[in-house]
Amino acid sequence: MREAERDQDAGQSGAPTPTTVYGETWVYESIVGAIPGIDIADRHAVVIQFAIFEVGVLALAFAYDLPGAVLPGTAAVLVAAAGSAFMLDIGNRARAPGVPERYRRLLFSSSIEVVLGVVAYVALLTYLFVWDPRDGATLFASLLGERPPVLPAALGLLVLWDVCYRIGTGWWAAVVALWRSVTQDLDADARARLAAVDRRTLGFGLLQSVLVPFVWDHPPLVVAVAGHVVAVAVVATASLYALEQAD
Q1: Spatial separation of the C-alpha atoms in residues 50 and 208, rounded to whole Å
Q2: Which helix (H) or strand (E) holds 40?
Q3: Each residue's pLDDT tens digit, 169-197
Q4: Backbone dihedral region of 149: left (phi > 0), alpha (psi from -120 to 50 degrees) or beta?
Q5: What is the spatial distance between Cα 204 and Cα 124, in angstroms, rounded to a whole number?
Q6: Where are the beta strands (DSSP E) in the chain?
Q7: How far apart are alpha carbons 220 and 45 in whole angstroms?
Q8: Closest CA relative to residue 75, chosen from 218, 222, 211
Q9: How far is CA 190 from the centre of its chain?
Q10: Which of 32-41, 131-140, 179-188 shows the lowest mean pLDDT across its residues?
Q11: In what helix (H) or strand (E) does residue 185 lie, and over which residues does it extend?
């Protein structure tokens, strides 16, 4: 992410390009941007993320004879990678000129999306390894067998963390968007930019409904995932409505 080149390109095109300032980024962006020697475009980072995890899913499923893990694993990897693309797009738009600083700082600097992701991950692990075994066949066993191999289990837990982090991010983006739309004075240009952010936040939430078919036999997970999707959709739609009413 070369700030000098971005500024130069912006000057040549006449269109302002937001500069990534650490402290005003998602934690995901800060980690990627802080890796020494790594300087790649956003879309390339997302493609690499998807490729690494998907190759891992396919290779381990083949090596350990786990064909039933391929489709749900691919769906989770797709949700995580597409979630990264949404996060990067939302972040760039939220840092655009004219966007209220209070909104931007609340969205990024608090890092609350990490806290929400941790809460979601702990709740998921509690379900998988404490609640689910009480009912006999578990979701983890149905995918990886009664004695899950170490490497596929480790990769599965890592991908699940990725998904939970993006669930936390989507919820936080929606909540802060509604607060911003209701409380901040915005000009027409800012409202247009932020409406684009809200539409992407809505798409970010709806994306996670892809996971519902894979947990259909586990009602608590269905309720959790579907409830999150509906909540994000309602809050993001309310934010868009508030922006429209301010015209």
Answers
A1: 16
A2: none
A3: 999 999 999 999 998 888 888 888 899 99
A4: beta
A5: 20
A6: none
A7: 33
A8: 211
A9: 24
A10: 32-41
A11: none
Total of domains in the chain: 1
Residue 94 domain boundaries: 3-245
**Residue type for position 174:** A
Q: How far is 240 from 92, CA to CA, in rounded Å? A: 19
With CA atoms as reference, report the closest residue to 240 among 194, 207, 204.
194
Count other C-beta atoms under 10 Å from residue 113's C-beta: 24
> Of 135, 157, 172, whose CA–CA distance to 26 is shortest?
172
Q: pLDDT value at position 34? A: 55
φ, ψ for residue 42, nearest 5 deg: -55, -45
For the chain, the average pLDDT equals 83
Classify residue 136 as left (phi > 0), alpha (psi -120 to 50) or beta.
left
Check pLDDT > 80 for residue 25. Answer: no
Q: Which one, of 79, 58, 51, lies nearest residue 212 by Cα? A: 79
Residue bearing tokens 């020697």: 37
**Count of alpha carbons within 13 Å of 61, Cβ hemisphere only?**
17
